[in-house]
Amino acid sequence: MTEAEPNLPFSGVKVISFAQLAQGPASVQLLGDLGADIIKIERPGTGSLERTYRLRNGESLLFHMLHRNQRSLTLDLKAPQGKDIVNSLVATADVVVENFRPGVMDRLGLGYEALSNINPGIVYLSASGFGPSGPYLSRPGQDLILQGLTGLASATGKRSDLPTPTGASVIDLHSAALNAFAISAALFHRTKTGKGQLINTSLMDAAVHLQTENVFDCANGIKKVRSECGLASPGASAPYGVFETKEGCIVISDVSTAQLADALEEPSIAEFTKEEAYSRREELHAIVKPIMMRRTAEEWLDHLLAKGIWCGPVKTYDELLVDPQMEHNKMMFEMQHPRLGTLRNIRSPITMSEAPLERHPRRAAPEVGQHTDEVLHELGFDEARIAALKADKVV
Prior knowledge:
Rossmann fold, 3-stranded antiparallel beta sheet, about 35% helix, elongated, CoA transferase, CoA-Trfase_fam_III, CoA-transferase activity, CoA-transferase_III_domain
């Protein structure tokens, strides 16, 4: 590394990343934020696919969102010299991450078996849409597709609505967190045994894990259906959901009918038993809904919170960015880019008492091949050899 690293948990850990799009890069960025040296392998010239998404001034915001604390090395993986460079990197690396379709890395000669022969201690994470085998092996795996397949879309919205996807890539980012956790566990295992291993993860497994509550209940005979009033969960009792007020909206979470009756000054609500709050949820919701129009969101929040009701505001992203708790937690930071100017980014969600985890990144997302010469010099390549590789379009 050319920059002095703070004493972060993964300082000294080298990760070779073949990750692409969202799931893979988000996985390794979590490791990079904790000090790992991430070397991202990209195509010479054009770079990785995610550089073409959500452009601003010709720059991909998706790429900048997911690639801080990473270095870019361009390589033609089909060229023998390109494979030789990967093998040299792997020899001194700790982790390899890839999320190509199953079989791609094996066909390139860069699968786990081949690379573990070079470095038996390598931790190799292979992430895919559906896993390394099975009837969906050839299908495309992507966040929205998995929201539809695994029931998430069918569990969201009103009963009469079409299945409704969430407004964020929740499966990609949940999968990324699980991937980083799995890699951390494998590195810890290696400290005890000296052995590396292959880790297979999938968006499908992550999507099912994300919905443990609903899937578990269904598997054990508890059938849930969406409410017509649009409660936030098919298994929730009323009034669990969003309510419009005289001005703005709020959410009301778990609450007993007795507590709610007192807070809303509506005795009929207390007549609903705990079981009836679910079986008669449409009826209960219909009682609560017009009452909420009597006050503004701010007035209701002051009143309900004072009564011990679990509730909160409904904010837009613009409002979130100036939320006092958001600002107190310092979740956003600014970084400079030569063409984009000031970029506001989201810090690592982790804070640790025994490591000086920086709230700001050590490096911004790289340009295509920005660190190619740097990485090759670390492998012992001289200027003439690097120039020859560039002439042959290997890098």
